[in-house]
Amino acid sequence: MRVAGLTKQILQAALFYEIWDAMKVTFKHMFHKPMTFQYPREQRTLPDTHRGALALLRYDDHQERCVGCDLCEAACPSRCIKVISSEDPERPLQRFASEFYIDITKCVFCGYCVEACPVNALAMTKVYEFSTHDKRTLLFDKKRLYDIGERHLDDAKKYLYAHNQEKNVEESREYRYYFPQSVLKPTQPPPKHLG
Amino acid sequence: MGLKPATNPDVEAATIELSIDGKSVTAKSGVSLYDVISSTGKIIPAMCYHYTFDPFGSCGMCLVMQEGKKAPVRSCTAKAAAGMIIKTDGDDLFQARKKAVEKHLSVHPLDCPVCDADGHCELQDMAFQHGVTNLANAKQKLIPEDTRSPVLDFNMNRCIACAECINVCKDVLMIDALQFMKKGGFNQVVPKGDLALSCEFCGDCLAVCPVGAITNKFSKYLYKPWQMKKTTTTCNYCGDGCQMYLETKDAEVVRVTSPLSWKNKWGDRAETAKGHGGLCVRGRFGFEYIDSDARLKQPLLRQGNQLVETPWLETMHQVVDRFSEIRRKHGPDAIAGLITARCTNEELYLFQKLMRTGFRTNQFDSSARYGHLNFVHASRHALGIGRSLNDWEDLTKAKAIILIGSNITETNPLTAVRIKEAIRVYSAQVVVIDSAVTNMAKLASHPFLIAAGTEGLVIDGLVKATLELDLIDEKSVMKHPQAFEALKAGVAHVSLEQVATQTGMSVESLKDTARIFAESPRSIILCAEGIVRRPDGYRNVLKLIDLAWITGKLGQPGCGVSTVTEEPNEQGAVDMGAAPEFLPGQALFSDQTARDRFAKAWDVTLPAANSGADLVEILKRCRSGQIRALYVVGENPLATLPASMEVRAALDRLELLVVQDPFMTETALMAHAVLPACTSAEKDGTFTNLEGRVLRVREAIDPIGESLPDWHIMTALANGLDCQWGYESSNDIQSEIMKLLPGYYNLGQPRKVAPAIDHYLSNGYTRDVVERYRATAPSDFRNERPFALLMGQVLYHSGKMSTKASGLITIAPNTGRLRMNPQDMEQLALKEGTTVRLTSDRGSMQLAVQPDQSIAPQTCFFPEHFNEPPVKDLMSVQVDPTTGVPTFKQTRVTIEKA
């Protein structure tokens, strides 16, 4: 037992067995495809349910979806949303968000706001790169959020579909809120979808 | 259902017994079953019920099972009867209520996200409570929104036809501006006749709407209810002292809501005698002055011709240095002060303390001098009490109310609601004697229109009629036979016929009024601006007290002579001693014991007893150069007093004029230093309302800009004058007042006061009474100047402050037009907008006219809130010799086409 063990030890020492043993994994990986991504040269494909930067959406006719109902603000657990709503000066009786802020530094990406939104104006995109030299730029305002929505419209829609918020274009119309008209213009026809 | 509460002062309702959920309950006979159930603490949902008016029974939620009946019954419209066996819980009832909610929801749009009522909506609460998820056969109404009214939007898609708005408007406020109308297949609430809403805009319909069918235009779409901070405070517009909730978001005042709301609907009908919790148009929609852009945000110092923004420290140094210099050179009597009664009690107290112990002068006055002091002096002189004898409960439960010279629905709308309740619920007889067709006259049982300025004569006539008809109360009169003889002799020369021809009130109606007043068990005389703000106000109040005395009404519960105040804290100004003749607690300044007490408490020697000066005297001394420095807090004498008072000349002569105000007033433009003060929404304190009730004012938002509360500025000023005051909050001042005036902070109900006239009747009455009823030569200059020009308050405004509230200005802008009776206009061949020349003894001016049905013939009216055109300058001023009250609200004019 002692002799056999000693012989093995000597042999291993002579053949640098431990080094070969340690390098085994390394050599094995020389024949594998690499596991890591060469970020940022390579980008990962994200699933549709990915919760990234929030975006505000518009309807196909370019109207803002958001009606400024403040429900996202109420649902937000980290209190990073601020909505200031008012009556649209150009379209009387229409409620809209005159200002909309999301402090993305505070956001925990839980997606509650998207769930709370009654008109599916909010959606999450696959944007996750927020690095910046100036932290203040991470307070997303209304314009920035609509820009994100425009640039990543497909992702946003995919997010909504993936989360069963909305199924297709036809169905998205059901969520649209049609405001009553003012009695000042009685000749206006009722909205088409309800006619 | 009966309209009246089951128990009132005249009728005690019988007690019945019934069983609710197996428990035996006693109740008053004649009340709604719903009230009985809610009085046991059990709340059943109901959407159309509110305790302030009769049950309507449209929502179908208050269902209960009554033994012996197959179907559930609506408990609100069912009267409680003896021996009923009621079950309020159970799955069958839950399902029945759920059906009712589903019925309402199926025609209600699911637009909660954009609805202003979201989060404060009874239908929403009920849908949650009953777990309504599935709505088959939902339909859309597609009714356009009625946005014609300047304050309210009607979105009838959301209406559940509970009729709370209609009922509160018709039953409680007796305005009746809303109705149901079947339009487009749905019953809708529309303004009367489906025209644009035109009413008093009190907004109580908005408060009771359980859904978002009626919404506030001022806060439309701005915030959801849960986002706002709610502060309970006291309204700053009139002496009613209504409680209100100021809803704010950061530094922005968003809206005002009232204790009256669908949320607090459970109460006893009898409780409304103390107020129904609503607000008027000024309280609800006149909040925009608080965060208006016109607010002063920085102290200003005069440099040459300009007022330049200067830091606080530098301004205060300058102000203190110049005050001390003037005091050193010319003595303390070169300094005077004026304060507005819109300040809190604490500030009024501090102001008089600053004047008396800091500047060591007794030359100061408050805006209570414009009228309220007439009443206070008269009442104090005769009865020993310097305030109204009656509270709201007395008014509600009165059997007879004589309203003389008071357009109460305009000046004090919520006190007017008490009188309306007296008319409607307790069937009181109301006599309205006024020189205008007031709104109250339209509801009163005995409305009388009199010639302008003859209120005093009418009172003479009433006293005479009481004597002639022998309506006197033997018991009270026989105690003081001498005084009674003197009174009889005093009015001996009065003839009812002559009074009738001069006033325009017939002999019969004079007698009727006297009879109503004397024969009712609880009768109240309410006199206001038509008495106390007119010449001889002091004498006329004393005459009214005479009338109450000989009919035996003084000292009787629920009877008395009362007044209403225009500014929120006029009563407080008098109580806090912000008048040269009074120390705090209405002790006379010349009273040696009181002087000693306060001198000891403040550790100073008070100014000499006779050195005081009131408003008129201060202005006179300013003109003569005797007063060199004036400290004005919130007052604006230049815009208030007519030109004949020569206020501008008086202010021009001053070496130092310091104005402390939230706004840039006309007076402030002349000042050497302007200190930005806070409005009442930015400070803590108390107001004393017209009942004598002390009400809390709470800080709702941080001071705007660099403005500071008045007490803060006054403390700094006093410390600059070596006073060493250590007040750090208004609480510190309060505790000092509490020590000096124990029992003043009677938060809650006002103390009942018992008038004591005996002392007066046996001392000096006989001497007074001769002078009081002295026959005045009938001043019949009607031929010379045929019209009486009256200036007064309109419902939508209060003083000059409300003109800074943009909402009120939208509702009632300054038309700049003279209001005239349409008949007079026809006679003079005037059309709306025609320019006329208005001439009084003091001058003449040109302005356009507009018709107004509420103006009596031979009179014309211009609201006192506006100086564009300066109609006030046509007025001549008469100063009451006893009380020093300047009266300038009435004059005679000629009107001719220009």
Give a short synopsis of this structure.
The complex is a heterodimer of chains A (195) and B (898). With 195 residues, chain A is an alpha+beta fold.
Task: Output the keywords.
heterodimer, A: 195 residues, alpha+beta, Alpha-Beta Plaits, 3-stranded antiparallel sheet, two-stranded antiparallel sheet, 7 helices, B: 898 residues, alpha/beta, Ubiquitin-like (UB roll), Rossmann fold, Dimethylsulfoxide Reductase, domain 2, 7-stranded mixed sheet, 6-stranded mixed β-barrel, 32 helices, 31% helix, 19% strand, globular
Write up this protein:
The complex is a heterodimer of chains A (195) and B (898). With 195 residues, chain A is an alpha+beta fold. Chain A folds into two domains: 1-35, no CATH class; 54-175, 2-Layer Sandwich (Alpha-Beta Plaits), CATH 3.30.70.3270. Helix content of chain A is 31%, strand content 12%. Chain A has a three-stranded antiparallel sheet. Chain A has a two-stranded antiparallel sheet with strand order 1-4. Chain A starts with a helix and ends in a 23-residue tail after the last helix. The model of chain A has no long low-confidence stretch (mean pLDDT 86). With 898 residues, chain B is of the alpha/beta class. Among the domains of chain B are: 15-103, Ubiquitin-like (UB roll) (Roll), CATH 3.10.20; 300-368 and 570-740, Rossmann fold (3-Layer(aba) Sandwich), CATH 3.40.50.740; 389-563, 3-Layer(aba) Sandwich (Dimethylsulfoxide Reductase, domain 2); 787-897, Beta Barrel (Barwin-like endoglucanases). The model of chain B has no long low-confidence stretch (mean pLDDT 92).
Q: From the 3D coordinates, which CATH architecture of the domain at 300-368 and 570-740 in chain B would you assign?
A: 3-Layer(aba) Sandwich
Flag low-confidence runs of chain A.
Answer: none
Largest interface by Cβ-Cβ < 8 Å: A-B, 27 and 22 residues
Low-confidence stretches of chain B: none
Secondary structure tally, helices of chain A: 7
Structural class of chain A: alpha+beta
Count every helix of chain B, treating DSSP H or I runs of 4 or more residues as helices: 32
* Oligomeric state of this protein: heterodimer
CATH class of the domain at 300-368 and 570-740 in chain B: Alpha Beta
Total domain count of chain A:
2
- Ends distance of chain B: 59 Å
**What fold name stands as the CATH topology of the largest domain in chain A?**
Alpha-Beta Plaits
Give the strand order, joined by hyphens, for the main sheet of chain A. 2-3-5
Average pLDDT figure of chain A: 86
Approximate shape of chain A: elongated
